[in-house]
Task: structure prediction
Amino acid sequence: QVQLVESGGGLVQPGGSLTLSCAASKNMPERAVMGWYRQAPGKQRDLVASITMGKMSNYEDSVKGRFTISRDNEKKTVYLQMNSLRPEDTAVYYCNARHRLGGYSYWGQGTQVTVSS
Result:
Protein backbone atom coordinates (compact mmCIF):
# COMPACT_ATOMS: atom_id res chain seq x y z
CA GLN A 1 0.00 0.00 0.00
CA VAL A 2 1.41 3.36 -1.05
CA GLN A 3 1.26 6.06 1.58
CA LEU A 4 1.05 9.76 0.81
CA VAL A 5 1.72 12.37 3.49
CA GLU A 6 0.70 15.96 2.84
CA SER A 7 1.92 19.07 4.61
CA GLY A 8 1.84 22.84 4.22
CA GLY A 9 -1.82 23.76 4.57
CA GLY A 10 -3.04 26.58 6.75
CA LEU A 11 -4.75 29.94 6.93
CA VAL A 12 -3.71 32.67 4.54
CA GLN A 13 -5.12 36.04 3.55
CA PRO A 14 -6.48 36.67 0.07
CA GLY A 15 -3.63 37.37 -2.32
CA GLY A 16 -1.23 35.35 -0.21
CA SER A 17 0.78 32.23 -1.00
CA LEU A 18 1.15 28.70 0.32
CA THR A 19 3.17 25.69 -0.75
CA LEU A 20 1.83 22.18 -0.26
CA SER A 21 4.08 19.13 -0.19
CA CYS A 22 3.24 15.47 -0.55
CA ALA A 23 5.79 12.76 0.15
CA ALA A 24 5.09 9.27 -1.15
CA SER A 25 6.35 6.08 0.38
CA LYS A 26 9.27 4.30 -1.30
CA ASN A 27 7.00 1.67 -2.84
CA MET A 28 5.19 4.20 -5.02
CA PRO A 29 5.69 3.21 -8.67
CA GLU A 30 8.08 5.69 -10.26
CA ARG A 31 5.79 6.16 -13.27
CA ALA A 32 2.78 7.16 -11.19
CA VAL A 33 1.00 10.36 -12.15
CA MET A 34 0.92 12.59 -9.07
CA GLY A 35 -1.63 15.27 -8.51
CA TRP A 36 -3.56 17.52 -6.21
CA TYR A 37 -7.31 17.53 -5.80
CA ARG A 38 -9.49 19.70 -3.61
CA GLN A 39 -12.86 19.40 -2.00
CA ALA A 40 -14.85 22.28 -0.57
CA PRO A 41 -17.74 21.66 1.87
CA GLY A 42 -20.76 20.28 0.05
CA LYS A 43 -18.88 19.91 -3.23
CA GLN A 44 -17.23 17.06 -5.08
CA ARG A 45 -13.51 16.43 -5.12
CA ASP A 46 -12.01 18.00 -8.24
CA LEU A 47 -8.61 17.89 -9.88
CA VAL A 48 -6.46 20.98 -9.33
CA ALA A 49 -3.26 19.93 -11.09
CA SER A 50 -1.37 16.81 -12.07
CA ILE A 51 2.14 15.97 -13.24
CA THR A 52 3.71 12.96 -14.89
CA MET A 53 7.08 11.42 -14.18
CA GLY A 54 8.28 13.26 -17.30
CA LYS A 55 7.16 16.57 -15.73
CA MET A 56 4.23 17.16 -18.06
CA SER A 57 1.62 19.11 -16.09
CA ASN A 58 -2.06 19.82 -16.34
CA TYR A 59 -4.11 22.47 -14.51
CA GLU A 60 -7.73 23.21 -13.80
CA ASP A 61 -8.68 26.45 -15.54
CA SER A 62 -9.28 28.57 -12.44
CA VAL A 63 -5.75 28.01 -11.10
CA LYS A 64 -3.79 28.48 -14.33
CA GLY A 65 -1.22 31.22 -13.89
CA ARG A 66 -1.56 31.15 -10.09
CA PHE A 67 -0.62 27.61 -9.08
CA THR A 68 2.46 25.63 -10.07
CA ILE A 69 2.85 21.89 -9.61
CA SER A 70 6.31 20.37 -9.48
CA ARG A 71 7.80 17.02 -8.69
CA ASP A 72 11.04 15.55 -7.39
CA ASN A 73 11.21 12.02 -8.76
CA GLU A 74 14.15 10.98 -6.59
CA LYS A 75 12.37 12.06 -3.42
CA LYS A 76 8.97 10.87 -4.71
CA THR A 77 7.55 14.20 -3.62
CA VAL A 78 5.09 16.52 -5.35
CA TYR A 79 4.61 20.19 -4.55
CA LEU A 80 1.89 22.72 -5.23
CA GLN A 81 2.95 26.36 -5.11
CA MET A 82 -0.17 28.47 -4.73
CA ASN A 83 0.00 32.22 -5.35
CA SER A 84 -2.66 34.93 -5.49
CA LEU A 85 -4.94 32.83 -3.36
CA ARG A 86 -8.65 33.59 -3.36
CA PRO A 87 -11.40 32.76 -0.85
CA GLU A 88 -12.81 30.30 -3.39
CA ASP A 89 -9.58 28.29 -3.15
CA THR A 90 -10.60 27.30 0.38
CA ALA A 91 -10.88 23.53 0.55
CA VAL A 92 -9.27 20.35 1.78
CA TYR A 93 -6.44 19.55 -0.62
CA TYR A 94 -5.67 15.90 -1.30
CA CYS A 95 -2.57 14.38 -2.83
CA ASN A 96 -3.07 11.54 -5.29
CA ALA A 97 -0.83 9.03 -7.03
CA ARG A 98 -2.31 6.93 -9.81
CA HIS A 99 -1.46 4.76 -12.77
CA ARG A 100 -1.49 6.91 -15.90
CA LEU A 101 -3.90 4.54 -17.66
CA GLY A 102 -6.13 3.77 -14.70
CA GLY A 103 -5.81 0.96 -12.20
CA TYR A 104 -4.28 1.93 -8.88
CA SER A 105 -5.04 5.22 -7.19
CA TYR A 106 -3.79 6.24 -3.77
CA TRP A 107 -4.85 9.20 -1.63
CA GLY A 108 -3.34 11.22 1.14
CA GLN A 109 -5.26 12.22 4.24
CA GLY A 110 -5.83 15.79 3.08
CA THR A 111 -4.68 19.18 4.31
CA GLN A 112 -6.90 22.17 4.95
CA VAL A 113 -6.30 25.41 3.07
CA THR A 114 -8.33 28.40 4.22
CA VAL A 115 -8.16 31.74 2.42
CA SER A 116 -9.75 34.42 4.54
CA SER A 117 -9.13 37.91 5.86
In short: The chain has a mean pLDDT of 96. The two ends are 39 Å apart (CA to CA). The chain has no helices and eleven strands. The first strand starts at residue 4 and ends at 7.
